[in-house]
Amino acid sequence: MPLQDESASALPAFPYYADPLADGCFEQRPIACEVCGQAREWAYVGGMYVEDDPETICPWCVADGRAAAKFEGTFQDVDFSETASAESVTAVLNRTPRVILWNPIHWPDHCGECCTYLGTLTPSGQPEITSHESVQQEAAVIARSMSRTWTNEDALDCAEQGTLTLHLFQCRTCQTYRLSPDGT
User: Fold this and answer.
1) Residue 3 scores a pLDDT above 50
2) pTM recorded for the entire structure
3) Which of 35, 28, 34 minimizes the C-alpha distance to 4?
4) Is 68 in contact with 48 (CB distance < 8 Å)?
């Protein structure tokens, strides 16, 4: 079967993950997808939570949920609040490339559905986002969960120094930012 001509711009969209290509979830190399059987130019390399990791999955089978269904697994090791819609939780677990984490985290929601993962917050590299009111509020909540005396600045300083990873998310409806901490 001949390879399909697939540029990076032809990769499927992942509504709950802003840029999985930049985060290394996909690699451009010829494969025969174990799920759909098609010859593809892109391989999913992010891993799954299954008994035996499949070796060659195409991004399209991740996006449409066929890979999770075939291997009876999920792509995330996260928890969700009860306010997230069941549809968005299913999409994150079964149709969203794996977010690389140190530990299981809480995948935030807002406006009734799971937020989109934007990546790791680096305060000095993202000053506009870091100064946003919702980020400052989220950092304050995280700081207080770590120590009664900590402020939002303490949490952001730890993120800057690399002693705390802050995963940045954004509401798909109102664009509010949310943070989820991950110890390193």
Assistant:
1) no
2) 0.92
3) 28
4) yes
Q: What is the full DSSP assignment across 64-99? A: TSHHHHHHT-BS--EE--TTS-HHHHHHHHHHSPPP
Q: Which of 118, 122, 127 is nearest to 176 (CA)?
A: 118
Residue 45 predicted with pLDDT over 70: yes
Phi and psi for 41 in degrees, rounded to 5? -95, -5
- DSSP-derived 3-state class of residue 111: coil
- Residue 2, pLDDT > 70, answer no
Q: How, if at all, do strands 78-79 and 105-106 pair?
A: parallel
Helix (H) or strand (E) holding 133: helix 133-146
**Bridge partners of residue 44, in order along the sequence:** 26, 57
